[in-house]
Specification:
about 160 residues, alpha+beta, four-stranded mixed sheet, 3 helices, about 35% strand
Amino acid sequence: WLIMKKFIILFLFLGLTACGFEPLLVKNKLNFSLEKYHLNENPLNNIIDNRLKSLKKNKESINKYSLKINTTNIKKILSNDNEGNPSILRLQIDLDAKTYEKNELIFSKIYSRSIDYRNTKNKFELKKYEKKLQKQLMDKILSELTQDLYRLKWF
């Protein structure tokens, strides 16, 4: 079984490198740039801002978009223990993105991601863990948004 596993990994590695596989969104091959973007007041804006700054750098792009982004993050209690304390929580992030080209709305989509997790007694560790989860969820949402922006001129 171990030999078979090594063979599969080697085959995948050689297959993907030999066929010219490249990730879809390589920074220097984006077909768009962001002229500007507007974010609502939200603690997640630092994550969004850092990610979108890199999309403003492609000045040579023909397709120039503006974004209006509204984000909400919701923390829900899914279940309580026998004493009534929260035991399972859900963190949900919603991002409403509106894309404009020359002040005309060309694309609008609401992205939503959530994750369930267990509560802990150590609130400091819980806050650290929630920040990590927020970043992971936001990274997934922003990757999907970037892919949608990339595909706008393909359709």
